[in-house]
Amino acid sequence: MSDLNVTPKQLSAYITTAFRAVGLPEADARTIGELMAEADVQGSDGHGVIRVPVYIRRILGGAVNVTPNIRVVEERAATAVVDGDNGMGHLVMKRATELAIEKARHCGIAWVGSRYSNHAGPASLYARMPLAHDMVALYFAVGNANHLPPWGGLDMLLSTNPIAVAIPTDREPPVVLDMATTVAAFGKVKAKAMLGQMMPEGWMVDRQGQPLLDPRRKDEGFLLPIGGYKGYGLSMIVGLLAGTLNGAAMGKEVVDFNNDDTSMTNTGQAICVIDPAAFGDVQAFKQRVDQLVGDIHASERMPGVDQIWVPGEQSHLKALHNRQHGITVPASLVRELDAVAVQLGVPTLAQTP
User: Fold this and answer.
1) Contact at 8 Å (CB) between 119 and 265?
2) What is the SS3 assignment for the chain?
3) Please, what sign has the CA dihedral across residues 257, 184, 48, 346?
4) Rounded to 10 degrees, what is the CA torsion of 299, 300, 304, 305?
5) Cα-Cα-Cα-Cα dihedral of 111, 115, 118, 123, to 10°?
């Protein structure tokens, strides 16, 4: 079996059909299909269709509610807590983000947290949504498995706990930072394992502190935080804001959804949306962001450096390429997705129109 090139529409349709087959309503399955396909379009291949097997496995194991009553349980003018009723995280965070946009429009800024959610894909999916309204967004989440010990420790009490920030521009691509608080997201480790590739030194170490390069041995060690002890501290703060503040899981309470198909994760996330109109002229703000981007591009480069990138530009270019030329799904993943299709009695990815 060889790699498969598919269109975003084809990828979305396959994902939608798979989730309909396990009991999700049509509209919810379509929402998840669109968001997961968009993850692959923007190059977040550790959080797109590669996650279908584990999501489906957990739904079939009873760990996820396919017909959740997603609702607001705490609310003030500029804040809210959304209870996801153990639904798919994509549905919970889309609802939370839409609510934050609405509140920011009235209050200038809004913060909406979630509890009893699940893994929701790449952080930038939700940070990007307010860009359509010329708004700034900051997203935080507790990772769905602990792969990071406290600085100097060995007990897995923290996770990749990602952060994403999206800032609108005028003519330039939006400035979008999407990062784990570890050197690499665990999804990238899984992607390396699937492709049979080694990890770069600096992603993981074993329990003796020695470099761990084989992703198949990932359970023998742990991820490293960005910036040493500073990344550890940042991971903890993000977890407190996205998890503890919302009554969601943090620390020992976090469930490893990669290896547990029956337990509810109670994943916590948070989205903060800022309306630049509350601070002045929106168009002028976007033009000033453009000016900074231009200054960075034009800045003097070190020898051997061809281009200085701004956060989000490479994902923007990947999205343009993938929409035009299609998305390449590696053969090893195609086999897994085909097995899911056979199990559910639905068309394979290659058979999906």
Assistant:
1) yes
2) CCCEEECHHHHHHHHHHHHHHCCCCHHHHHHHHHHHHHHHHCCCCCCCHHHHHHHHHHHHCCCCCCCCCCEEEEECCCEEEEECCCCCHHHHHHHHHHHHHHHHHHHCEEEEEEEEECCCCCCHHHHHHHHHHCCEEEEEECCCCCCECCCCCCCCCECCCCEEEEECCCCCCCEEEEECCECCCHHHHHHHHHHCCCCCCCCEEECCCCEECCHHHHHHEEECECCCHHHHHHHHHHHHHHCHHHCCCCHHHCCCCCCCCCCCCCEEEEEEEECHHHCCCHHHHHHHHHHHHHHHHHCCCCCCCCCCCCCCHHHHHHHHHHHHHCEEECHHHHHHHHHHHHHHCCCCCCCCC
3) negative
4) -10
5) 20
- Give the integer Cα–Cα distance in Å for 234 and 238: 6
pLDDT per position as a tens digit, 36-77: 999 999 999 889 999 999 999 999 999 999 999 999 999 999
User: Which candidate, 10, 54, 60, places its Cα nearest to that of 33?
Assistant: 10
Residue 116: Cβ within 10 Å count: 24
| Strand duo 211-212 + 79-83: pairing | unpaired
Q: Judge whether residue 191 has pLDDT over 90.
A: no
Sign, Cα dihedral of 238, 136, 186, 81: positive
For residues 224 and 205, is the Cβ–Cβ distance under 8 A?
A: yes
Could you tell me the pTM of the whole model? 0.95
Q: What is the pLDDT of residues 215-272, one digit of tens each?
A: 999 999 999 999 999 999 999 999 999 999 999 999 999 999 999 999 999 999 999 9
d(Cα 65, Cα 58) in Å, to the nearest integer?
A: 10
Contact 153, 107 (CB under 8 A): no
